[in-house]
Amino acid sequence: MASISRVLYVGVTDDIVRRVGQHKLGEIEGFTKRYRLKKLVYLEEFNDIRAAIAREKQLKGWRREKKVALIEAENPNWMDLSWEWFGAKRLALDGE
Questions:
Q1: Coil, strand, or helix at residue 22?
Q2: pTM of this structure
């Protein structure tokens, strides 16, 4: 997840649509709510939760520059990859 000012957050979930919606609505207390992280700019899918958690830990150990390079290799314009998931609710969820 990223904010307009490109603050970054790395997390893991078993329901990406639900979790991104919660972040967009500010339902999850903590870092993502405090820094208004509402854009999904990068995502990886795993069939094994252990592999997902290992990757999350790896990414969290990276310096910001390396995370930015990973995002920009796949999503150079930092588009919100969750934009289509929420239909008419998009603007409300994005806080615009």
A1: helix
A2: 0.85
